[in-house]
Amino acid sequence: MDSSLFLLSEGDAGVVREVRLTGDVRRRLMDLGLTPGARVACLFSAPSGDPRAYMVRGSVIALRREDAAGVALGGQ
Amino acid sequence: MGLTLNSVGRRASDLQHTDTPRAFRTAALAGNPNVGKSTVFNGLTGLRQHTGNWSGKTVLTAAGSFELDGRTYALVDIPGAYSLRAGSAEEEAARDAIVFGGADLVVVVCDAGALERNLNLTLQILEATPNVIVAVNLMDEAKKRGISVDTAKLSQLLGVPVVPMAARRGRGLAELRRAVADFIPPPYACTVRYADPIEDAVNGLEMALENVLEGRLNARFAALRLLEGDGKMLARTDEFLGFPLAQHPAVAPALDSARQILRDAGLEDGAVGDALIAGIYKKSEEICRQCVRGPAGYGERQLKIDRLLTRRLTGIPVMLALLALIFYITIRGANGPSDLLYALFERLGAAMAEGLRGLHAPEALTRALIFGVWRVLGYVVSVMLPPMAIFFPLFTLLEDLGYLPRVAFDLDAGFRKAGACGKQCLTMAMGFGCNAAGVVGCRIIDSKRERLIAVLTNSLVPCNGRFPILIALITMFLVTSGGAGGSVLAALALTGFIVAGVAATLLASRLLSRTVLKGEPSSPTLELPPFRCPKVGEVIVRSLLDRTLFVLGRAAAVAAPAGLLIWLAANVRVGNGTVLSAVTGTLDPVGRFLGMDGVILTAFLLGIPANETVVPIMIMAYAASGTFEGYENLSALRELLLANGWTSVTAVCTALFTVLHWPCTTTLLTVKKETGSVKWTVLAALLPTCMGVLACALTARLFG
User: Which end of chain B is more exposed for a tag (fewer CB within 10 A), N or C?
Assistant: First the structure.
């Protein structure tokens, strides 16, 4: 199954499989707790539908579409 | 909105140097953004660092101290960071302060409600030094969400002292002071054990490093950074040590063989960093399983509010309505006090003039002092003080509540289309308070390109010194009907001008990102903190004392000499007219072209040191050229402006120019300091000025 954070709809949750992004963004997202095995829930979206707010490890972070699409879900 | 005496006043430079020579012990205060570090810092030291509910509000390092049992303990408040693997400039500053800062111990402030994430930084810091105290803050907030943290168990697992806190309520402060005073290096501080190949690689390298580093840096920490290959971090390490660590003859071979071990295990360079962070989070999960109890989800009520604030149909309207509401309260509330203050100043001025005449002071001196200095001061105080004193606290309440990050979230798409960062919203919001503070705040933006865009466009939103000008113009000319209905209209008009400022910001950002600052928008990470109930009393007192009075003081300091200057200029004659009429006459054609006149333009020029003085100087200049002897009340000033040819177009153009013109000197100096470049500073002045000239000239042509 090839799911990503971006495909998660409001109110749904999933488990991170891997972060497919590179460079600073990759490091930043992993530092925020999006490491393999982490549970993520999609909470709400901005008026234009992008960015969206996700809950990970007890805090809420906003991610733009292309970044959310780079976080693969599934497994575990 | 961090403009306080501490942040830009004379004491600002003192606060930044971190060594307090007489201190018995120095503690650095670290933590994730928005965990209440500044609140803990203020609570411990009695200082007043500005606090607010959003990530990245502390961008400067502040130092303070406290005393216990006759000893002085120095405390350094460093910017928030998610990780020692620095991304932004402020995170770099935080990392340097923690790793190379030379503090005796690090107090890591954690959010009890997001401990798992907070332990990432904590465990990373524990790799650099075992001299750590963990302060688990926001225990009260977490409890409300049904989360409890067993701090005794946490202390046992981490091997360092742990202090539970609710710093906003003053809880845990005494315990933390005591913990800092009684601190002894913990013998069994927790270290993360990574996957086998990494541990194997680290072991050999660590031994080689021990001898080379001689205790200046933790050998295991240095080994991990070498293997991870964080270029910026290693460059800083080399600078700190004074030699290139990786090339040291005793290190290089060990590093080679360590890397070979990793390659054999299939871990290429980039993969090491990932493995480390995954290892840290695994440890963090393990710790939290044992000492955190409670729901991991988001509160239902909070979610409902958040959805209301961010929905397609309600997000932006709610934002505009809140802004208009704040303006309404400001305009409605400022009216009475303004008139009262004005009358008071007039009466006092008359009495003083009487007194001076009684003392047989020269008439010219009396007039210069009363009609020059005193009257301009009176205008600044009566026109500017009431709206500032109302707007500042109201805005701070919204800030404390945690609303600003939601605005940034809502407007992110707009900023992204403009090629900028959604976080620019936060710096823009800081600009409402003070553009200089907003420019400094741009440090929260990671991408250099986007940070420059935010810096250059910050003055396009009117600061606290400028929107009373807008209020004055609107209430004098555009919405003249009084009462609640008039105030509603005035608030809407003001909101309109602010929206114009935001639109100008987006336009200018787009322009910049298409021309001199080309590039792809980066990926910002914006944290949305839980709503916090603001401490209303404290907010009012603090924003009045720390900000309003400071800003007013600055304005008055500019206004007094400006008043004298104008009076002199209006009374010293050259040729057929006065110096003032010569100056305003020269500027008049330019002013007319822009839908204004020479006097207004002169006022804007003289108002460079402090925009608060523009309207008072303007009124003075008009008055001084005629036979102005003062008016009964403020609304009578409208007559003065009308007599000088003002129309509603003049008022609109002046309002537009108020929003769009060169920034004040403080802001320009700050831009120079932040960008380190004259070129960008000049652009920061030219950009809004050109936009203002364009907007005003167009308005004048279309409606004049």
Answer: C
Q: Which CATH architecture has domain A3-73?
A: Roll (2.30)
Phi, psi dihedral angles at B535 (to 5 degrees): -90, 95
- Average pLDDT across each block of 10 residues of chain B; the chain has 704 residues. List them in order: 36 39 85 89 79 58 85 89 81 88 93 94 95 96 92 96 94 96 93 93 92 91 91 91 92 93 85 91 95 85 92 92 92 88 89 91 87 84 84 85 90 88 85 85 85 94 87 84 83 92 94 88 82 80 74 80 84 84 91 94 89 83 64 73 90 94 91 92 96 95 86
d(C-alpha B80, C-alpha B56), whole Å: 6
* Distance of alpha carbon B375 from alpha carbon B352, whole angstroms: 12
A55 interfaces chain B, CB cutoff of 8 Å: yes
**Domain boundaries, given as residue ranges, for chain B:** 5-181, 196-268, 315-703
Q: Which of B92, B523, B526 is the best mutation test for A, with the most CBs of A within 10 A?
A: B523
Q: Which two tokens stand for residue B341?
A: 């203050």
| Pairing assessment for the beta strands B71-77 and B148-149 based on DSSP bridges | unpaired
Q: List strands edge to edge, sheet with B526-528.
A: A3-4, A71-73, A13-19, A39-45, A52-56, A59-63, B526-528
The residue of chain A with its CA nearest to that of B311 is A47
Q: Which CATH code fits B5-181?
A: 3.40.50.300
Distance of CA B284 to the CA centre of its chain: 32
Shortest distance between the Cα of A59 and any Cα of chain B, in A, equals 6
> What's the rounded Cα separation, in Å, for the pair B391 and B507?
27
For chain A, domain boundaries: 3-73
ipTM of this complex > 0.85?
A: yes
- What is the residue whose two structure tokens read 């050998």? B219
Record: contact B528-A32, CB cut-off 8 A: no
Cβ atoms B488, B687 nearer than 8 A: no
Residue B357 near chain A (CB below 8 Å): no
Q: How far is CA B545 from CA B32, B398, B552, in A?
A: 29, 18, 10
Q: Which of B296, B416, B528 sits opposite A58 (nearest CB)?
A: B296
Cα–Cα distance measured from residue B463 to residue A62, given in angstroms and rounded to the nearest whole number: 28
- N residues, chain B: 704
**Tokens linked to B269:** 């360079």
